Structures are given as C-alpha cells and as structure tokens.
Amino acid sequence: MDLIKITSDKERARSILRMTELIKERISKQDMEKMSALVIADYYEILKELITALLLIDGYKTLSHKDLIDYLKERYTEFRSYEISFLDDLRVLRNRISYEGFFVDSSYLERNKKVLEGLLLKLKNLVEKKLER
Predict the structure, then answer these.
(1) CATH number corresponding to 8-132
(2) Is the pTM of this model over 0.90?
C-alpha cells in the first residue's frame, strides 16, 4: 500500500462529506433506467470520497483507488469481506464505465442498490463519528 503520512485534515474531510451529499442528491434526480451506468459511477465516487475522508482524518492520503480499499480492509474490521470485495468489483466496473464507455443494465443497480446504500451509510456514519472526536 502506497500511503503518504500527512497531518490529520478534518476540515477537508468535512468538505468531502458535504460534496458527497450533493452527489447523492444528483443520483436521486437521475433516470435509473436510462442512466444506470452513470448512477453506478456516482455511487462509486461517493464511496471513494468517504474512504478518502477517513484517510484524511487518520492522517494519510493516497493516489490509488485500490489502496483506499486495501486501507479500509486492513484498518476497519467492521467491514466484512463481501463488502470489501464488492467495493473492489465496483472500482473495476467504474473504470470500465469511465474509460471504456461500458454500459450497465439497470438490473445491476436494482440488485445492488441495498448494498450500495448500506455501504454509503456505514461509511458516512463512520466519518461523522470520527469527525466528532
């Protein structure tokens, strides 16, 4: 894992938390059938940014999305192996969407919305809890 040690930056983490709320609002206004690939990319963006906020609070940063997920796996045992695996699969899917123009059937979103929302809530609550300290 390629982590860079920095001074804890709670202010930046708070800003990221606010930005994720805006992205979540944008998701709620999308046509899930037509825009499913973009909605999935937005969900990934929120999850990635929330993990980034955790790193910032803990005094680290990285440029690697893979390292973000590995950090979560190693440091936050409250995440189950299927959640870590799902995040990594989502990372790969998002890369295909962003770099290959890959389209995702809306059924993927329907099948995984509960997991996406659960991860989002879990990460958001964790960030908010750590910001209170």
Answers:
(1) 1.20.120.330
(2) yes
Give the start-to-end residue ranges of the domains of the chain.
8-132
pLDDT band at 110 (very low <50, low <70, confident <90, very high): very high
- pLDDT score at 1: 86
Instruction: Decide: residue 71, CB within 10 A, 0-12 exposed, 13-18 middle, 19+ buried.
Output: buried
CA separation for the pair 5, 61 (Å, rounded)? 7
Tokens of 30: 């999308």
Mean pLDDT of 87-107: 96
Q: At what angle do helices 36-58 and 10-28 cross, to 10 degrees?
A: 170
Q: Would you say the C-alpha torsion 91, 96, 101, 106 has a positive or negative sign? A: negative
